[in-house]
Amino acid sequence: MTVMTAPAPAAAVAAPIPTAVPAASPAAGPVWQPVCAVEDIWPDTGVCALLGGRQIAVFRLADGGLHAIDNHDPNSGANVLWRGIVGDLGGEPVVASPIYKHHYRLRDGGCIENPDTPLATHAVELRDGIVWVEA
Amino acid sequence: MHQQRLVVVGNGMVGHRFVQELLALHPDLPAAGLAVTVLGEEPRPAYDRVHLSSFFSGTSADELSLVEPGFYQRPGLRLRLNARVASIERRNNTLQLADGEVLAYDKLVLATGSYPFVPPVPGRERDACHVYRTIEDLEAMQASGARSASGVVVGGGLLGLECAKALRDMGLRTHVVEFAPRLMVAQVDDGGGRILRRKIEDLGVQVHTERNTAEITDGATARHRMVFADGSWLETDMIVFSAGIRARDELARRCLLAVGPRGGVVIDDHCRSSDADIYAIGECASWNEQVFGLVAPGYDMARVAARHIGGGADAAFAGADMSTKLKLMGVDVASIGDAQGRTRGALSCVFTDEIKQIYKKLVVSADRKRLLGAVLVGDAAEYGTLLQMMLNGIALPEAPEQLILPAADGAAKAGLGVDALPDGAVLCSCNNVSKGQLCAAVADGARTIGELKSATRAGTSCGGCVPLVTQVLNAELKRQGVEVTNHLCEHFPHSRQELYHLVRVGGIRSFAELLHRHGTGRGCDICKPVAASILASCWNDFILNQDQARLQDSNDYFLGNIQKDGSYSAVPRVAAGEITPEQLIAIGRIAKKYDLYTKITGGQRIDLFGAQVHQLPLIWRELVDAGFESGHAYGKSLRTVKSCVGSTWCRYGVQDSVGMAIRLENRYKGLRSPHKIKFGVSGCTRECAEAQGKDVGVIATERGWNLYVCGNGGMKPRHAELLASDLDEATLVRMIDRFLMFYIRTADRLQRTSTWRDNLEGGLDYLKAVILEDSLGLGAELEAEMAHVVGSYACEWKKAIEDPALLRRMRTFVNSDAADDNIVFVRERGQIRPATAAEKLQCFKGIAVVAETA
């Protein structure tokens, strides 16, 4: 799932990044957690967030769109997707795994070359200049 | 409905083809009122006699079979093997089998083939004397071969040479004895025969021409002695007769069917014998007093007879073109049409190259307008083109000799475009497939040569037409607009070469600008790295600035080589492989500190494996502090300049190859290009640096340096070619500048110099003209472009560690200092290596178990 958020008004002061992440109780299901300042993700690249032991690749597109998918590439077995080249195929935003070049759709986590290996996606939001991910 | 009883005598290639043709016309035989019985005298169903000699190089009898399993198990069709026909009773339309059984027929098809002719030489029936026709013959030959050291083939025709290959494959000293003055007397002329003989003899087969065997007796040093009419003799352990074939027409003779003057059941254009109920097809038939010993006319007769029996009154056999192309022991031989030039007024045009052992002859009509025939020995690449010209009466070009002269190196050969062929042109004569049928199959959806073959059967017998069939496929796909364009990807309707030009001429300095002006969408993992490489080749800005970082492949982005587990390796530059003890110690110290796996690379440097993203800047910092630079092992760029030790130490060296290699490596380091580039510099002609396997090879001479280009090792090795000799250093560097920049300007994406050169129109001569003679007037421009890249070099590791914004990106996790726990190492031979999946599982399990018991 993807949420596009308008940039915060210029007058707004960016909130400091919370350092203490509220511990998520497993039974409580996914919780929203802050990841980084939006400027920490250069446009059309990704970063990797470690949230409750889970690796999540978070991408920021040049148009401001934010996407979060699992960082683990099931086709290579390596945790590398945040390091893939971001682009589009047929208008659909994708990331190409750096190991064997499998393409994963950023919107729904589907793998173009191997439909049997879809990835989990996560909700992302931009709140006052901070990227939040639900995981 | 009356059932028509159809009996086919013979289950060889042609007899089997007849049944296939019949089934193609009547897939449901009982519904068509047909009851078909096929009688085969051999113990196995039809097999491929054309490729019989492959039996000796390991092909099994099963693999030679032409009959798909279950083919003869269908209603209305019966195949009886080991069934020999004793006689035909035409009065009551019956035939009697050797075991006495009588079968009635309404229509009878004789496809009895031929038998090998054995000259009536006394002693021909001795032990270990064979013929070459059936798989049983081959098995007998194999048994004799196992107890023989030498073998003779009597007969130097097409089959005889096939047979000689079989003997040679069995490891025998092999001889060919031929009555005529040359080999393949029916297909080639004297000139071609001479070259063919030399080539065959070079392969270790002794050829004896003009020898008439008079007698075979006991040998003194071998099993047999063959005594020739001139009194000379030859001793050998085994003999195979391959002196031509004779039609198997004895059944026809005994029931008084008409037979031809040279044997064979006389047939009309519908393949009917003198008895309207009996047909004959293949090598047992005589049409216009000709017996055809090739499979293609036999297949054609099978088609005609099947149609005619099925009521197609107009199905007619119209003779056959006897052109052939074959590979005998690796030697290409082809004969087209009137190869001997017997047509009145025929003119010939001959090309002989005794060095390369190539012979080519064209036979041209008296008015010089049409091709009548050709002989090709040693190189038959033009067979398809010439055959079609002859068959379709296509007007000869202005200078017909160009058709057979070797093309200037790499230049496009004056060929025959398939567009010039009429739709009726039969491209596959074995299976009678016309260009029109191929086009129709492509229109029906055949997209690959494999699909086209199964749709039409074209190219499935001798395979000689496959190049032409492929051309038709490509031309048709192109016509339908299915062709693969040279567009880089969906975002840019341009080739790499065009994009390079657009960037350079348009002064484009960012991907955003390039996309905006010449592309669509966001880009992808194909076009982004290409754009990044072009921008770097042209302007040489830092590849990890905020605009360009997002274009880079993971390797370039992290200035290291990604490994299968997502860790990286780092290779410091060790120019020319020269390294000081202090540098060696520093590398060792750093590797030890970060527990990296170290390995010497093929390019004379040291690779450090096993670094996680967050460790990379720390390692770069230490390497840079120790005086190292990035080795660009991660880039499509100059990798290494390998060198031998040269005249400084080596007693054979004539120049300082290490010094030269260091200067070249430092000049071109960091140069981004369509693919990686490797150099080699050798100090003498012994070539210890293997420079001729490199993109750029430099070899010392007494007077300077020889420059070789476009070599490659790896997947498809290619020897580099000599571009220029005895250059002084300044000229050498200028020529390399021009060469590299010309390659960068014109190559496709991920195209090494070797494939670039193979695809370069005009070949080596063109390259020499551009680089050495500056035929395009680009020399100064190319040199200036290189000067810019050389002058703006900066070590990428050093740039990275001095850039705080970039360093913030070099973290495994954006919100944690943890490492990736999926990267797990175990120790082997004193160093780390990635754990296997099983080892990882064990490692995680182990922790869990401890936790539970605690």
UniProtKB/TrEMBL annotation, chain A:
**Listed PANTHER family:** NITRITE REDUCTASE (NADH) SMALL SUBUNIT (PTHR40562:SF1), PTHR40562
Pfam hit, one: Rieske_2
Q: Does the keyword Oxidoreductase apply?
A: yes
Which CDD domains does this UniProt record tie to the protein?
Rieske_NirD
Gene3D superfamilies, per the entry: Rieske [2Fe-2S] iron-sulphur domain
User: Where would I find the Rieske domain in this sequence?
Assistant: 33-133
Q: Name one GO biological process term.
A: nitrate assimilation
Question: What InterPro entries does this protein's entry cite?
Answer: NirD, Rieske-like_NirD, Rieske_2Fe-2S, Rieske_2Fe-2S_sf
Q: Does the keyword Acyltransferase apply?
A: no
Question: What is this protein identified as?
Answer: Nitrite reductase (NAD(P)H) large subunit, NirD
> What are the leading ranks of the lineage?
Bacteria, Pseudomonadati, Pseudomonadota, Betaproteobacteria, Rhodocyclales
- What GO molecular function terms would the record report? 2 iron, 2 sulfur cluster binding; metal ion binding; nitrite reductase [NAD(P)H] activity
Q: Which UniProt keywords apply?
A: 2Fe-2S, Iron, Iron-sulfur, Metal-binding, Nitrate assimilation, Oxidoreductase
Automatic annotation (TrEMBL), chain B:
Q: Where are the transmembrane segments?
A: none
- FAD/NAD(P)-binding domain boundaries: 5-296
Q: Which InterPro entries match?
A: BFD-like_2Fe2S-bd_dom, BFD-like_2Fe2S-bd_dom_sf, FAD/NAD-bd_sf, FAD/NAD-binding_dom, FAD/NAD-linked_Rdtase_dimer_sf, NasD-like, NiRdtase/SiRdtase_haem-b_fer, Nit/Sulf_reduc_fer-like_dom_sf
Domain (Nitrite/sulphite reductase 4Fe-4S) spans 635-758
Q: What does the record's cofactor remark say about binding?
A: Binds 1 siroheme per subunit.
Which residue ranges does the record assign to the NADH-rubredoxin oxidoreductase C-terminal domain? 323-393
**GO:BP terms for this protein?**
energy derivation by oxidation of organic compounds; nitrate assimilation
Q: Which residues bind siroheme?
A: C688
Asked whether the keyword ATP-binding is assigned, the reply is: no
In what pathway does it function? Answer: Nitrogen metabolism; nitrate reduction (assimilation)
Gene3D superfamilies with a match to the protein in the record:
3.30.390.30, BFD-like [2Fe-2S]-binding domain (1.10.10.1100), FAD/NAD(P)-binding domain (3.50.50.60), Sulfite Reductase Hemoprotein, domain 1 (3.30.413.10)
Query: Which Pfam family, any one of them, does this sequence belong to?
Result: NIR_SIR_ferr
* NCBIfam families in alphabetical order: nitri_red_nirB, PRK14989.1
**Designated name of the protein:** Nitrite reductase (NAD(P)H) large subunit
